[in-house]
């Protein structure tokens, strides 16, 4: 009996020692790797590299980057196979909504605020571009409602179905794809436009870039922050203001009779809750690490223009925006990060 | 570390070249693209306008003509029925149209090239390594510039499918012609045949079973490009596979995957049957 009690006491003591040890040392000092979702889109890749430099150089963390598409990574975050998902749009997927409600995943901060998305055309379609010798093709085009106009429709004509215009939706299977399809129906544009799914982000970008180079009109869905936004002059079409009522209609399975603008997106660093409990030091840094939207667009445009790797863009940001990130980290870590830049 | 002084990069000149092509000849490429597209849309229109049982009957008849027994037509009919019952009929027809167009162009390009490779040693030395490149270069590498030149959708999908699928047809056409017994060719020569008569009257007919085996391989490889095609905006079964895997709807992805397999089995058995009946004759 007493032996049992003794061993229990010893075990308790050991546990106590282990936990107190954990709180004294930072998460990374315990030798645990920090596992980041290496998501493939530009802003996500940029943020992943930025976190790699901050935690890897500044705090000596062993970084493991796991790559995969957004959905597989979200699942990995829920199961705890990765620790941090660097750029998650809140409320966009069922899986994440459920995980947030169940408390397996939570937000640890905002990489940037007020992400914007919508339907775009190149600016020259409306305003022309004297420098490149482009006459405005549709000077009166301002809002999504005008898209039904046969003259406007003809501008965006779909070669596969010439009687209709072509609306370039989100790539197949992204959550924005379903929303855009609903909006197309809600605006009553589905009879005038083909709902064209580009299949992948790369294909969407290629088509927009090609149209821009050929000075042709193109109508597409896009979002901020992206290199495309920083590189080309694009014009967002006006939509009726967002309202919860209209949004509920769009996301339900009933026939859509109205539509409205996307809500301003809330974008967060998502973390696995078990990890968050073990790594308060890392969570604290994430909660401060918010970058202005223009700065991210600038970094992404730098990436596109200089054909720089996301890692180079992260270095570029760290070099040029020290006044931002030095507020997020300890002075000691800031020094180490600066050393890493040279 | 590899010395920095020896490093060089071709990426900038290539990017500039692609941008130059798009800016200067973009509209020409789009015109070519629209020409290919109109042919494809016609095939698709026919396939989608035919009643479903009509299409199935045509496939069963073709299968019967190829093998002259009842087993294969029944299998083909049953499988196509299954595709329809899984709710994949329209998607299957769209994919089939893409396949047929790609196969047609593959034949037009592949068989003459195969003959050339068999006959001209220089061509063999140049083309065989090129075929290796075509089969191993990751398709997105040439697809993105192809999209920029030809636009999104079916046309770059057909091109990608041809680039990946045509090499076996070229290889096997060339092999089939070189395997023709030299004594037969000599006999034809002795009867005073011209080289053209030898090619069309002796070598090509004798090479037909091998060429058909190549065609069969080409179709099979083309089908493996269906998902890649849908990643550049070509509608069809691939799109549903993509949708399934992107949203972790495993069942939906598998259903569409089964559709692709059905198409593969149907086309494979028919072309194989054709090859075997040729061998028997």
The secondary-structure class of chain A comes to alpha+beta
What is the ordering of alpha helices and beta strands of chain A?
Answer: HEHEHEHEEHHEEHEHEHEHEHHHHHH
Instruction: State the major sheet of chain B.
Output: none
Mean of residue pLDDT of chain B? 90
For the record, the CATH class of the largest domain in chain A is Alpha Beta
Quick description:
With 342 residues, chain A is α+β, with helices and mostly antiparallel strands. Chain A has 16 helices and eleven strands.
Q: Topology, pairings included?
A:
The complex is a heterodimer of chains A (342) and B (281).
Chain A: H1 2-24, E1 33-38, H2 42-59, E2 62-67, H3 70-79, E3 84-89, H4 94-102, E4 105-107, E5 117-122, H5 123-127, H6 150-155, E6 157-158, E7 161-168, H7 175-186, E8 193-196, H8 201-213, E9 220-223, H9 227-231, E10 234-236, H10 244-251, E11 267-272, H11 273-278, H12 280-288, H13 293-305, H14 310-320, H15 322-325, H16 331-341
Parallel strand pairs in A: 1-2, 7-8
Antiparallel strand pairs in A: 3-11, 4-11, 5-9, 5-10, 6-7
Helix pairs in contact in A: 2-14, 2-16, 13-14
Chain B: H1 11-49, H2 52-67, H3 71-85, H4 89-119, H5 121-136, H6 139-150, H7 154-178, H8 182-190, H9 195-223, H10 226-230, H11 237-246, H12 250-280
Domain ABC-type glycine betaine transport system substrate-binding (chain A): 32-320
GO molecular function (chain A): transmembrane transporter activity
Organism (chain A): Chelativorans sp. (strain BNC1)
